[in-house]
Amino acid sequence: MDSFGSSSSSSSSSQPSTDAIMSQLQNQLAQAYAEELVETLRGKCFDKCVTKPGSSLSGSESSCVSRCVDRYLEATGIIAKSLTQMR
Asked: By Cβ atoms counted within 10 A, which residue in 36, 48, 56, 57 is the most buried?
């Protein structure tokens, strides 16, 4: 079987449609983007806000991480909006 769940020796009528392939690719890209976003936020915000890692976050560390994530997501949204307007 190929990665789309049909055997490669099947007739073309059982091949996945272009729409199904595009949908699967979009889902995979969205998942990869989400994973990259989480890793970026973890790296940037955790490293910036948590100076002495322990078993839990202090109130100030928690606030710092929250503000950092909010700022990063806002900036990412502004950039995305600007890029879509340029098209």
From this structure: 57
